[in-house]
Amino acid sequence: MGLFSRKPERCAVCGAELGHRHRPRKEWGMEGLLCGECHVDKAKEYHEGRMSRPCAECGAVRKITDLWEPRWQWDMEGLLCKGCFDSKEEGFARKRSFCAMCGAKMGFIRYRPKPKWNMVGRELCRGCWDAQKAKRG
Q1: Domain regions of the chain by residue span
Q2: Tens digit of pLDDT for each residue in 66-94?
Q3: What is the pTM assigned to this prediction?
């Protein structure tokens, strides 16, 4: 029993009562807390590359050490293989470098569409932004 008579917590893998709680890394794909031995075992599996997970984009199963974590701007869960990561990165750079409407190369000053316009693109050039402002307000 713990402080203020809490219920004892159990390990998510072996079910042993926890003296000290260890949180699993999000790459491990586990829920719950781990005991010290199970945490060490999972860390060894992860660092030795024995764990395998599917790519979030193409579904190819690879060792977890060969997968890449997506950028936070992409707003996605899971890990990506190198090819999928590179294609996502290229698409993201294209969205950031060119106007979403006319495709013109973006200059130093960029304009973001208003949320109520419900546009897919990230940034607009001044001409397109002025046109949308006049049309939609």
Answers
A1: 1-48, 51-95, 98-137
A2: 889 999 888 888 899 999 999 999 988 88
A3: 0.55
